[in-house]
Amino acid sequence: MQKKEAPKDKTMILFNVTKRLREEILNGNLKKGERLVQEEWAGKLGVSRMPIREALRQLEHEGLVKLEPHKGAIVTPITKDDIEEIYHSRLLLESLAVEKSLPHLTEKDIAEIEDLLLKMESFNIATENIDYYVQVHDQFHKSLRKRSPWARVDSMVDRLGISPIAPSLLVGHYSETQRDHRLIFEAIKRKSASEVRLAVEYHILRTKNHLIEYMEELKMLDQ
Fold first, then answer.
1. Sequence-distant (≥ 6) Cβ neighbours of residue 88 within 8 angstroms
2. What domains can be seen in the chain, in order of their start residue?
């Protein structure tokens, strides 16, 4: 009788499968418009179809594939120009949304933001599941702008894409990211709109630059 996989094993398999497919797209091995066949990738990676299917759903959320009826997953890779456009747009929109949110944040809101910050700062990047960190990171950024009265701007930030995957791609820059988050929070506590805006803009620009470096390094490794 085949041994049943533990939930922890399933989580690790899904993480590894998603990471491998993501890298294949970002480094250019999988081209725009190419179809990802679940059976083929299950065979290549030595896993069942289930983690392939779940990984493709995650990659669709990240904007790297599109799931089409009767066709399956179609590659829609992120390019350097995409990152430039997304992050410059995010710089303008997210910093504005956080600035507009700042005057309306309650003491309870600020305490929740601090709790999320402390969770990220206590996260062990070497031993803990990166998906948990990604989730907390996403909540932190949403909490900063949760009281913004400009709902359209906030909605545009959510639709920009790729931002949710940056923490999982840039684990090597974890310490820098946490310093950025701490600076943003300290500005929030001081209720300084100008400091908050500058701290958010700096964080977004640094992330953009590291993402481009990451993609270029992947291509170099593939040569």
1. 208
2. 7-75 (1.10.10.10), 80-222 (1.20.120.530)
